[in-house]
Amino acid sequence: MVDYLVSFGGLRPLEISDKLLCLFSADVTMKDDEYVVTVPRREIDTGSVESGETYRVALISRETETESEESQTTATNESTTSTGTVSSEPQPPVEAGEIRYVEVEDIGKQGDGIARVERGYVIIVPGAEIGERVKVEITEVKSNFAVGEIIEEEF
Fold first, then answer.
1. Backbone angles phi, psi at 60, to 5 degrees
2. Topology of the domain comprising 3-60+92-153
3. Whole-number Å distance between alpha carbons of 8 and 108
4. pLDDT tens by residue, 52-104
5. Higher confidence at residue 134 or residue 19?
């Protein structure tokens, strides 16, 4: 199975392998004659990555600050609603039916898992626990949160 993620502003799809262990943003630094990508401690702590092992690494090009600002401004100021009207409100970064890989960061008042994606947008994941990494299908989308049904645990 291959999933597609679309960057904020819908610039282009990105094919994601089923073998994906983790996904994070990191700076590339130079140490002696090598370039270093630092893996966040949480990836080691959750067991996705083990120290001393060898992994394939894919680097995804970043937008320049100007391109990113233009994308966000366009997406925020010129979002089109389902009725075809232009809205000044930013649109949710997910759509119903979309598949997402998320890490549950918190538990809500009703016991559901809480994950956050772009711009801090909340995805409620019923049945998930803090620290759990799950593959979800988005079943409901609201302006300030979405609901995701677990389709695979601990990816």
1. -105, 130
2. OB fold (Dihydrolipoamide Acetyltransferase, E2P) (2.40.50)
3. 26
4. 888 777 777 665 444 445 544 444 444 455 555 555 567 899 999 999 999 99
5. 134
> Which residues are bridge partners to 97 per DSSP?
none
- Tally Cβ neighbours within 10 Å of residue 146: 25
b/e per residue, 93-129, with b = 16+ CB within 10 A? bbeeebbbbbbbeeeeeeeebbbebeeebbbbbeebe
Residues, the chain, total? 155
Q: CA-CA distance, 155 to 146, in Å (whole number)?
A: 20
More confident residue, 82 or 27: 27
pTM, two decimals, is 0.47
Nearest alpha-carbon partner for 152 in 110, 100, 107, 93: 100
Any idea where the domains of the chain sit in the sequence? 3-60+92-153
User: In terms of Cα–Cα distance, which of 90, 81, 122, 77 is closest to 103?
Assistant: 122
Pairing state between β 113-116 and 145-153: unpaired
pLDDT tens figures, 90-148: 789 999 999 999 999 999 889 999 999 988 899 999 999 999 999 999 999 998 999 99
Query: Which residues, in sequence order, are bridge partners of residue 134?
Result: 102, 153
